[in-house]
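Now for a chain:

_____
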Amino acid sequence: MPAPRRIVAGLTLLLFATTACGSESKSEAASLELWTRSTPASAEVYKKVIAAYTAKTGVKVTYVPIYENFENKIQEAAAARDLPDVVINDVSLLGTGLSQGLITPVDRAAVAGAADTLDRAWNQARAADGKYYGIPFSTQAVATFIRKDWREKLGRDVPTTWAELDALARAFQNDDPDGNGKDDTYGMLVPASTERGYTAWWASSYLWQGGGDFLTESGGKFTPAIDQPKSVEAVKWMRNLFCEDKVVVPGALTLITDDAHPFFETGKAGIYLTGPWMMGRFDKSLGKDRYEVIPSPAGPAGQGVLGEGENIYLMAGSKLGQQQKQLAEFLISPEGQRIGMNTDQPNPVVRLPVNTTVDVVAERKDERWATIKEIYRDNGRLFPQVPNWTPLRQQASETLNSIFANCGADVQAELTRLAGSFRTELAKQKAG
């Protein structure tokens, strides 16, 4: 998921090229320090992967799982000149880490197992300069989760278009799908807080499905596309969910994902655009037979959705370069990937394997993962690969959140102002 915009000023690659990540004792003991952004449940899966790595290589790993304020913890470690050796995090770290000199370049050809690593997955580790600054570890694409029992009770078909999705959301909102005789259900769950850029994270898939985009690229230079006609129409369609159809759960504009999930699993909302990592939780809390996972219904331009994942970052300043690389190579090996997938248990840290010799359906024993794989393969998209997407994403989140909150706002004017902010930021990054 997205990262916040807080940045420790003045951090440079030179600083970490001349300063060890940790103490001398860490180097002498050849003990790697690994950080991941993980819930406690996911951390248990990482511990299994690490135990297998240590058993195979003899290299000890000090593992630090962090969930709350992960990005701030990275910045604090950077300011203290005490970065971990390796970090596994989503693609949001790429731009910030590169701009601050926190991560090191990767020679893809020198990585054992790279030939068996999905070529498309490497794109999420490639920066605007065309070089790689991470090694892909896991991929995924978002999908549409629907209360199947509600849909069938109301005699509705699986939606395949925006119009059908909108109609289903209104039916869930108004037609008492849970049959309790109360007006207590909502059509769509939307985590649209600006925190960590959630608004743009949620809106991106619908923006692309409408034929719009945040930016367009030509010859390595980017120009705003958020104020163009198809982008404007897509944003208007999204705002209608809040303002005209009014099918979105209350409080959505301040809702983060952790607080959003209970709306779906406790029977308050019937449609949720989210990631496959939620299936294990919902299977347990709601019941596998009560909801379905489908490709996002097509907008005017098709079914494009956010498709990204997690990278392994080799942090700058480490004195354990060989061990950094060795750990990464184990993580992308068939053994590391299979352990990370957690077989048929919930909380996999490898969602779609990046190793092409590993079959997600055979390992997970769940055909829904075949659906996720197809969505990623056919319709998954990355955010624009500018030098640092984080500030642009935050600007987009704040503008979109404001538009969804103000039903009388001039959408074209607001997006035109956002395009101007994009141009200013792109100029700062020398990408415009």
